[in-house]
Design goal:
By secondary structure, the protein is of the alpha/beta class. It is built from 12 helices and 12 strands. Strand 4 and strand 5 (88-89) form a beta hairpin. The structure holds iron/sulfur cluster. Iron/sulfur cluster binds at residues 259-260, 296, 298-299, 302, 304-306, 309, 314, 327-329.
Length: 333
């Protein structure tokens, strides 16, 4: 019997319509045909995360990984496709079941300061949602908050302070305490350590791993930096311009990256000197998602691009056990 994934995305897409400027609006008003531009931020993605797994989702800024994370966390609807939680399509849930599913997936953001209400004390930031959802009562709220703070590595003695009275690393811990306070089983961490100093990054990453063991958590860990997810992730998924281009167990990606884009990202991990000699660092800017290149989106930057790459989208297919890649090179005998 195959296990049911905790989260499964089937052919999920997210489109954004670019707002018309003044001239465009005027032209539309007087009946001149105007082409409305659509960004395909996420384009037909299949993804699954098993219970207890840590999946690293990696790509450059603008590749759609944050949009994908928001859809997984249920804070942004998909434009197309289906999102399942433990085999149940989330769109079919309503009322208490929908609220419960939403609570069980929490998101940790890059900038804890922006995601914490500056006018609330930590005790309210952490304690409000569990009180609202009946996970504690007024009498138990204070102790409940203390427990969440301790678990996130914060001293409860500071719970009457405001977010600006904490360092960046501590603020991220407040964000983690707030997320854990509603007893989730799945965390979506979106560049959760990107804004922190390297030494603090390591501490927060260790905290995530300790919490994983303590609370049996599952993670989708989004980062632009393969180096950050290397030691954290069981499996790594690489995205480029809205599409998944490679997916494999973490050690497989680091030992045998198949897709030229993944190889370029690996070359950008500065401390892996040996790899620098093998791969070329990715060149050029990521193209605009408003006008993505045809065929393989990566072809204008790919050192191995062939004629077929400019016209035909490569299919994400299995190239080894548990290893999928979307590159026409795999079709060349
Ligand atoms: Fe490069 Fe072609 Fe593979 Fe795309 S499909 S990564 S352009 S070789």
């Amino acid at each position: 019997m195959t296990a049911v994934p905790m989260i499964e995305l089937r052919n999920v897409s997210r489109r954004f319509e670019k707002k018309l400027d003044f001239a465009g609006k005027l032209a539309k008003k007087i009946g001149v045909p105007v082409r409305e531009e659509v960004v395909h931020a996420v384009d037909g993605v299949d993804l699954s995360v098993m219970k207890g797994e840590v999946v690293g989702l990696v790509g450059e800024s603008g590749c759609g990984k944050s949009t994908l994370g928001r859809m997984v966390a249920g804070i942004m609807p998909a434009s197309g496709g289906q999102v399942f939680r433990e085999g149940v399509e989330v769109n079919t849930l309503s009322g208490a079941a929908a609220r419960h599913a939403k609570l069980r997936t929490q998101m940790i953001f890059q900038d804890p300061y922006a995601s914490l209400n500056p006018r609330l004390r930590v005790q309210d930031i952490v304690g409000e949602a569990p009180l609202f959802h009946g996970l504690t009562d007024r009498n138990g709220q204070s102790d409940y908050v203390d427990d969440q703070m301790r678990r996130a590595g914060l001293d409860p003695a500071f719970k009457r302070r405001y977010p600006h009275q904490f360092s960046g690393g501590q603020r991220q811990r407040i964000g983690i305490a707030r997320a854990l306070a509603v007893q989730p089983d799945f965390l979506v961490c979106d560049e959760a350590v990107a804004a922190l100093d390297v030494s603090i990054q390591a501490q927060v990453l260790n905290l995530f791993m300790r919490l994983r063991a303590e609370l049996d958590l599952t993670y989708l860990f989004i980062s632009h930096d393969l180096g950050v997810v290397e030691h954290l992730s069981d499996r790594v998924v690489i995205m480029y311009l809205g599409r998944v281009v490679e997916e494999a167990p973490s050690e497989e990606v680091f030992a045998r990256a198949n897709h030229p884009y993944t190889q370029s990202l690996l070359a950008a991990v500065p401390r892996i000197e040996a790899r620098k000699k093998v791969f070329n660092v990715v060149k050029g800017e990521i193209p605009s998602p408003l006008d993505p290149p045809p065929g393989c989106h990566f072809h204008p930057r790919c050192p191995h691009a062939m004629d077929i790459c400019r016209v035909e989208r490569p299919v994400l297919r299995q190239i080894a056990p548990n290893h999928r890649s979307a590159c026409h090179l795999n079709d060349v005998a």
